[in-house]
Write a structure and sequence with these properties.
Blueprint (H helix, E strand, L loop, with lengths): L40 E6 L2 E7 L6 E7 L2 E6 L4 E3 L12
Antiparallel strand pairs: 1-2, 3-4, 4-5
Length: 95
């Protein structure tokens, strides 16, 4: 996991499978991480050799939609803003 500056702040094992993984926002000691945007990637190894390194899609709740400078901007829970062009999917949390 990397912070907004691109610094790795945590690395942990995840189970093999297609099930969603929910990040708690806590560090290994149970303390809340700083507010901000984090990115995630899955790295697959065979021994010490990296086999694959893939970015992970992240889901967040949209709390507001704005038009800014001719572009649609989504405001996420927590206050982060992203361009609608960065969104790859939408889902209905009630389903």
């Amino acid at each position: 996991m990397k912070n907004e500056a691109g610094d790795e702040v945590e690395r942990f094992d995840i189970p093999i499978g297609a099930e969603p993984l929910e990040w708690s926002g806590l560090d290994a000691q149970g303390n809340s991480r700083e507010l901000g945007l984090y990115s995630f990637e899955v790295v697959s190894y065979s021994g010490d050799d990296i086999l694959a390194q893939d970015a992970v899609e992240v889901y967040s709740t949209v709390t507001e939609v704005r038009s800014q400078g001719g572009e649609i901007v989504l405001i996420l829970q927590g206050g982060a803003a992203i361009a609608s062009s960065q969104v790859s999917a939408l889902r209905d949390p009630t389903l």
